[in-house]
Design brief:
The protein is an alpha+beta fold. It has one domain: TT1751-like domain (TATA-Binding Protein, 2-Layer Sandwich), CATH 3.30.310.70. Helices cover about 40% and strands about 25% of the residues. It has a 5-stranded antiparallel sheet with strand order 1-5-4-3-2.
């Protein structure tokens, strides 16, 4: 059975830039290096007319991509196929429908067919991602 909640999202009323900066600080504060920052809303706006939809979804939306050497090694030693779950990505966004409400979301690293060691390691990754998301929003 698949995870019924593969995407976790937390939110609060705030300025997008403040939460984005707090998210970056929360990631880096764990000793992690951000490998890539994706500007999702810019891509959607740039390509909208090419795919036949110019509807604006986000006031802003960015994703941070990073990895944890220790947790990644643990997950991949438990099952080499877990490499498909790395790197990790956390999204920060504000929709046009809910101005002033900023979300921090991530995709839960989960596999229904994994071994006990694999599930334990992926649970640790989930805890890391959730902790970062909550810290960025001041929900700790």
């Amino acid at each position: 059975m698949a995870d019924p909640h593969p995407i976790v999202a937390h939110s609060k009323r705030a300025k997008f830039e403040d939460v984005r900066d707090d998210l970056k600080a929360a990631i880096e504060g764990k000793g992690l290096v951000i490998d890539y920052q994706s500007f999702v809303n810019r891509m959607l706006e740039r390509t909208g007319k090419d795919v036949g939809s110019a509807r604006k979804l986000y006031a802003d939306a960015q994703a941070f991509v990073f990895c944890s050497a220790a947790l990644s090694r643990k997950t991949m030693e438990a099952d080499p196929a877990n490499a498909a779950l790395c790197p990790y990505s956390i999204m920060v966004y504000e929709t046009v429908r809910e101005p002033g409400v900023v979300y921090v979301s991530y995709r839960r690293p989960w596999r229904p067919d994994g071994s006990a060691a694999s599930k334990a390691a992926l649970t640790d990754v989930d805890k890391l991602l959730d902790g970062i998301a909550r810290e960025a929003l001041g929900l700790r």
